[in-house]
């Protein structure tokens, strides 16, 4: 019930896979985490193309939860093609 919650990944679906778009997406992720999950600290966000499929972009988000001394990584596969 929070309309601004989330990154708005739909806005990036048909964007080119270029560094400026990746930078914008990383900034949006950082902004949303800071707003809605301030207990999480983003350490690093990296993007790379899948080796198996050039239409798949892999977003790796390394984050920490300082209150529990936990560092983890989340890998998301984003299909950037229109293979449907």
What layout of secondary structure does this protein have?
Layout: H1 19-36, E1 41-49, E2 56-65, E3 70-79
Antiparallel strand pairs: 1-2, 2-3
Describe the protein.
The structure is a single chain. This protein is an alpha+beta fold and 84 residues long. The protein has one helix and three strands. The protein has a three-stranded antiparallel sheet, covered by helices on one side. A hairpin with a 6-residue loop joins strand 1 (41-49) and strand 2. The relative contact order is 0.16.
Quick recap:
The protein has 84 residues and is α+β, with helices and mostly antiparallel strands. It is built from one helix and three strands. β2 and β3 form a beta hairpin.
Beta percentage is: 25-35%
Mean pLDDT: 86
Relative helix content: 10-25%
For the termini, the CA-CA separation is: 30 Å
Main sheet record: 3 strands, antiparallel
- Which runs of at least 5 residues are low in confidence (pLDDT < 50)? none
Q: What is the gyration radius calculated from CA atoms? A: 14 Å
Describe the global form: globular
The structure class reads alpha+beta
Number of helices: 1
Tell how many strands the DSSP assignment holds: 3
Which oligomeric state applies?
Answer: single chain
Q: Give the neighbour order of strands across the main sheet.
A: 1-2-3
Compressed to H and E, one letter per element, the order equals HEEE
